[in-house]
Write a structure and sequence with these properties.
By secondary structure, the protein is α+β, with helices and mostly antiparallel strands. The protein has five helices and five strands, in the order ααααβββββα.
Amino acid sequence: MKKQPGSGRPHQGQPAAAAARPAPGEPEHPLLRDVFPDLVAELTALLQEEGESELAVCARDLRLVEECGCGDGFCQSIRTADHPRGRPYGPGHRCVPLSPSTGMLILDVVDGRIVYIEVLDRPPLHRLEERAQPKGPPAAKA
């Protein structure tokens, strides 16, 4: 079974991590680990604990396609693959609830590929570049 353009489904037998790469002509989205490394580390550990070792490996190569933007203060969900809004994922979809120490992390997985991460009722996610910026007022130049 060949990958249909824009379908987000891997070739049969193709590792899900390889399917995470954009097709020619699609935009290159940043790796989630380069934006939210703490989240990826937590996902990887929780997936290992759940016995989802293949998904744990794939979590390292997730792309940040889009942040939810629903405006709800409790939601920081992340789309990791393109998918039309309001349409069900269809065959090959499963939900993987994880057990973090705070809030909820629930993954939508299609054909072995994490396509959406529900991040609910958790402290704010911190981007890597936010942590790199110095805190406080800028230093005065001499």
